[in-house]
Design a protein that fits this description.
Elements (H helix, E strand, L loop, with lengths): L1 E4 L5 E9 L2 E6 L22 E7 L2 E6 L1 H4 L2
Antiparallel strand pairs: 1-2, 2-3, 4-5
């Protein structure tokens, strides 16, 4: 996580991460939760970037491999 000073003098907290050799940042307020890896249940006939689905507190969520999805 990093802290960046904006042009108007207010600090923004950012989450930074790397995918392959490219760096990305998200506003920390856009992140709901960071959790460890959980094995995904694979889906037949899904695109190669879809790793599968996980169950998060009763909600089925897709797991997307951004390294495969982004150029």
């Amino acid at each position: 996580m990093s802290n960046r000073e904006s042009a108007d003098g207010t600090g923004h907290m950012l989450i930074s991460f790397d995918i392959a050799d490219q760096g990305y940042c998200l506003d920390v307020m856009a992140v709901r939760k960071i959790r460890g890896w959980t094995q995904a249940t694979s889906l037949p006939a899904s695109p190669s970037h879809v790793r599968g689905v996980i169950n998060l507190r009763g909600t089925v969520l897709p797991v997307v491999d951004l390294a495969r999805r982004l150029p």
